[in-house]
Structure formats: structure tokens, C-alpha cells
Amino acid sequence: MENEEMLAAIKEMFAEERKITDAKIEATQKDTIQQVKALLENGVEKQIRLLAEGHAQILARLPDAEEQGEIKSRVTTLEHVAADHTRQLDELRKAQ
């Protein structure tokens, strides 16, 4: 065999090995992708769903915007009344 024939034979061997290696890599990639998808479906997505459900429950307990406005108004009124009562009590203490 001459050098060119040897090089051609080696090139052909490497081409065959490359095909085999590429096929193995592709199979491994597909398997890895399947594993990642399964992990996402079973783990992460489930946890996100549970978190969203908990968030929805919290939001359901919170007062809506109209109720919050009413609560703020009542709290402001109570703060003014408490301040007025404190002032009146201070005046009564001074009068004694």
C-alpha cells in the first residue's frame, strides 16, 4: 500500500468511527433531554403549581381594593379619635 492508499483507508476508518460516535452522542443527548423534561414536569412544575396555589389562597384572604380603602378610612378615624382621647386624658390629669 502506498501512502495515499493508507491515508484513504485511515480516513475511511475515522469517518466510520465518527459516525458511530455521533450516533452515541445523539442518543445520549436525547436521553438527557428526556431526563430534564421529566425532572421539570415532576419537580419544578409541581413546585411552581403548589406555590401558585398558595399564592392564590393568600390573595383570596386579602381584602379587595374597595375594602382596603374602607379599612384605611376607619383606621385613620380611629387614630384621630385615639389622639383626641389621649389629649382629653392629659387635660383631665392636669386638672386634678
Automatic annotation (TrEMBL):
Superkingdom classification of source = Bacteria
Instruction: Please give the name of this protein.
Output: Uncharacterized protein
Q: Which species?
A: Caproicibacter fermentans
